[in-house]
Amino acid sequence: MADTLEFNEIYQEVKGSMNDGRLRLSRQGVIFKNSKTGKVDNIQASELAEGVWRRVALGHGLKLLTKNGHVYKYDGFRESEFDKLSDFFKAHYRLELAEKDLCVKGWNWGTVRFGGQLLSFDIGEQPVFEIPLSNVSQCTTGKNEVTLEFHQNDDAEVSLMEVRFYVPPTQEDGVDPVEAFAQNVLSKADVIQATGDAICIFRELQCLTPRGRYDIRIYPTFLHLHGKTFDYKIPYTTVLRLFLLPHKDQRQMFFVISLDPPIKQGQTRYHFLILLFSKDEDISLTLNMNEEEVEKRFEGRLTKNMSGSLYEMVSRVMKALVNRKITVPGNFQGHSGAQCITCSYKASSGLLYPLERGFIYVHKPPVHIRFDEISFVNFARGTTTTRSFDFEIETKQGTQYTFSSIEREEYGKLFDFVNAKKLNIKNRGLKEGMKQSYDEYADSDEDQHDAYLERMKEEGKIREENANDSSDGSGEETDESFNPGEEDDDVAEEFDSNASASSSSGDGDSDRDEKKPAKKAKIVKERKPRKKQVESKKGKDPNAPKRPMSAYMLWLNANREKIKSDHPGISITDLSKKAGELWKAMSKEKKEASGEWDRKAEDARRDYEKAMKEYSVGGKSESSKAERSKKKKKKQEKQTKGKAEKKGAASKALSSTKSPAKSMSESFKSKEFVSSDESSSGESKKE
Asked: Where is the composition biased (Acidic residues) (predicted)?
């Protein structure tokens, strides 16, 4: 007999909705983990009172009753699993797994039985339906009638909101069956009634969601938020988690309460209650209980009189009443030393906290993502600027969260944190020394985008070196080793834009020149500066020493033929891309251990500096003289060309004045009239 049984894709019935998760049966008890919320239900073996196996809509189900009256229902079992479960219950829990089928006669009269927190409507000995009394939000009575109202279920498409029971009158004196029915329901129902005094009250606390200032009254079983406009009553059973998070400014604290089901206001649902405190606020608190009651109920976790920071007192009281741990940020530290990252989610800016077992974003809208529900994370380029990047998280259910506008300086810290937590990183190639899983994510758009970025960086680097070779004034600069994964995004984007602008404008100019010859002097003048730039690049001194190559370029030249032989028919672009991948795959330790290419690059740099000194002393002066004589010659040619153009313009003006004279003698019009007419006709032609 196995010590444990595990079942996947099991559904737990909670407040009318089926929550999927994993069920584990062991010697110690029964554990169910909700896949959606991560909430864990733990039933000790000593608490189990009864186990029932029955046929339900999703196959077969298991109903467990505990000694304190709680009922747990799990559906999704196969019929063949009954023998295995029955033997396990006998061996480890000493319980008989009874088989009881539901009555499907369709009758609407029968007997109501109250057992623990369950209302069962039976026909004979068979149950027709069961209602967990914790689902009841209100119970009202009428003449021979009891009406039950239920909490709205946001997860279900259709929710049962009301059931009415007709209770026939009885002959017994002094007993009202309607009132007895209602009292049985109300004793177990989730109807919150603020009876008695509050344990303590916190006045005018700043609340971010729901927004406003609220008085928080702490009762034994629920929390009462009292504001100017709205009131909320929150049972402690609906609290999933508590978070205490320091603000980035180190002067404020967030206290976050995660709720399931959420509190409602109209159509708005609040899954998180977020309180904001200043660290400077202090409070002296006295509980509305005597010392014996405090000691008996809280067992030393609280005392009757307490004092300290306001956020500490609120969190301490909540922890004692809810009986849940408070989650605080782990060992993550951002670029500025804070335990959070400034970013934007949807339309609002907020703070993302990497925790030990998940991420939480505050504050609008608040988001909590557990590590166990994350499928993968992705680091993407910022859509608006290269000074930031986006952090994307996709869950196993297919939900995607994009946290944008994260400062580029936070990338290394966040990457190391995600890597340490062993989360799947979709684009590992962005970090040097990490092997990217091309096979697993080959078809994704993000990976194609990153490969394109890498190629652009490589081409931009090569263009930068060529431009540096052609510039005379950059002799004192030195190249750094080429690291495709660590190159600044600004460089790649700058070269991308320049390349596209120059190529498109160049093509456009050539097309215009073929179709329309330049008639106006104005167009020629606009294009002259661009020609001058080309001439200045072409006219550089051929005797000047060439700039030294970086370690990457030296390695590429030595291994180019080997890469070609390993990949026959590879294109130039793909060759550069492949070389970048191979260089990036070489670990930092391997590069430092061999040191061959760094030494060669250093030797080349020294030779270049030595040659530049010799060139600046002797060769540069001679080349500058040749350049000056060249410029002088060009100036003279330009002057003679300008004189010829002026002469031609004068002859044209002369011929134009002769033609109006002929027309004047023929039509007897004045010279002023004719010239004005000509000018207007010339303007219309231009238009």
From this structure: 474-496
- Domain 341-421 falls under CATH 3.40.1380.10: no
pTM greater than 0.90 (yes/no): no
- What's the pLDDT at 39? 79
Q: List the beta strands (DSSP E) in 315-462.
A: 326-327, 341-345, 348-354, 358-362, 367-370, 374-381, 388-395, 400-407
Maximum Cα–Cα distance across the chain: 137
> Hunting for tokens 């009462």 — which residue is that?
224
Looking at residue 639, its pLDDT comes to 72
Q: Are 302 and 287 in contact (CB under 8 A)?
A: yes
User: pLDDT (tens digit, 9 = 90+) per residue, 653-666?
Assistant: 444 444 444 444 44
Domain covering 200-327: architecture:
Roll (2.30)
The 3 state secondary structure assigned to 517-541 is: CCCCHHHHHHHHHHHHHHHHHHCCC
| Helix or strand holding residue 269 (H, E) | strand 268-278
Of 49, 60, 58, give the one whose Cα is nearest residue 83: 60
Residue 155 has pLDDT above 80, yes or no: no
Residue 104's pLDDT is 85
Q: Are 135 and 15 in contact (CB under 8 A)?
A: yes
Judged by DSSP in three states, 667 sits in helix
Q: What is the percentage of the chain residues whose pLDDT exceeds 90?
A: 14
Give the CATH class of 111-187.
Answer: mainly beta
CATH code matching the domain that covers 4-99, chosen among 2.30.29.30, 3.40.630.30, 3.30.280.10, 3.40.50.1000: 2.30.29.30
As a dihedral over the C-alpha atoms of residue 610, residue 612, residue 614, residue 618, rounded to 10 degrees, the angle is 180
